[in-house]
Amino acid sequence: MPLFFFISGFLFFYYDDFSKNVYLGKIKKRFKSLVVPYIFWNLVVVGFYFMAQMVVPSMMSGQMKLVADFTMSDWLSCFWNFKDGGPVNLPLWFLRDLICLSIGTPLICLFVKMCRIYGVVLLAACWLIFGTPTNFLVGLFFFTAGAWFGINKVDVVEKVLPYRKMSAAAYFLVMIAGIAMLLVGFPSGEYLHKLGILFGLGACFAWAGWIVKTKNIRRRAWLEDSSFLVYAYHGLPLLFLSKICVRYIQPESSAMLIFLFIVLPVVIGAVGVAIYAVMKRFFPCFTSWMCGK
């Protein structure tokens, strides 16, 4: 998610000089591309929970309150902090934070212009010290870092392209160091993990830019177009499929667990692409609407 926060912050500011009219125009577009699908896909998950509680209650953990008994507070929590710091459709915590950051872009723009690169460094330090995988500091730092590049019209790819080998090597070294620490009984540590994220971010931009410039790669429109649906729908099906596999396959070996860990997301992703293809053919307008297009 750090990569997507960075790209979102960069794109918000890069192509237009920030102004009131530009801000209002972008917010209007993001209401359609972020807020509408955010509400829709959270309601979809609530609907699935309701049906599961009615039809197959044995597959439920029993820890979740019956949807039929939801109060207004429960409904509101579905869209903000239902469980583990995220909405009821947990992967959409990214959209929730991105909506808040988009609304707050005037303050972010002012912060970047007043504090310059030093403000971004300060946020980086806060993220390194206090950031957790899903708390707001993740989005705030990476979105603001992307905004700094966008406001200053800095081409990120051109800046990191000469360092593609170095950034990739640094990323793999950090990974190896983390694995080595785990093997000798020491936790790899969140700071090492976050350092790996920074190197990985640079490596992604550098190598993606190099591939685009040097290789003739055809754009896979069907894969790109279906990506949002796969992202928005995958959480609950993956959870239920995992429960079914554990109940009926009963994996005991590490090899089987690793196999399921790899295969199940691929299956869910492939099903998502197929669902998108069918819906796009028969319900094109509705499909575009629910995917924020």
Automatic annotation (TrEMBL):
Determine the domain of life of the protein's source. Bacteria
The GO terms describing molecular function are:
O-acetyltransferase activity
Location in the cell reads:
Cell membrane
What biological process terms from GO does the record include?
A: enterobacterial common antigen biosynthetic process
Query: Transmembrane stretches, by residue range?
Result: 35-56, 98-130, 136-156, 168-186, 192-212, 228-249, 255-278
Membrane-protein topology: Multi-pass membrane protein
Question: Could you name the Gene Ontology cellular component terms for this entry?
Answer: plasma membrane
What's the short name of a Pfam family annotated to this entry? Acyl_transf_3
Q: Using the record's annotation, list all stretches that form the Acyltransferase domain.
A: 1-272
Keywords of this entry: Acyltransferase, Cell membrane, Membrane, Transferase, Transmembrane, Transmembrane helix
Q: Into which family does the record put it?
A: Belongs to the acyltransferase 3 family.
Q: What is this protein called?
A: Acyltransferase family protein
The upper taxonomy is:
Bacteria, Pseudomonadati, Bacteroidota, Bacteroidia, Bacteroidales
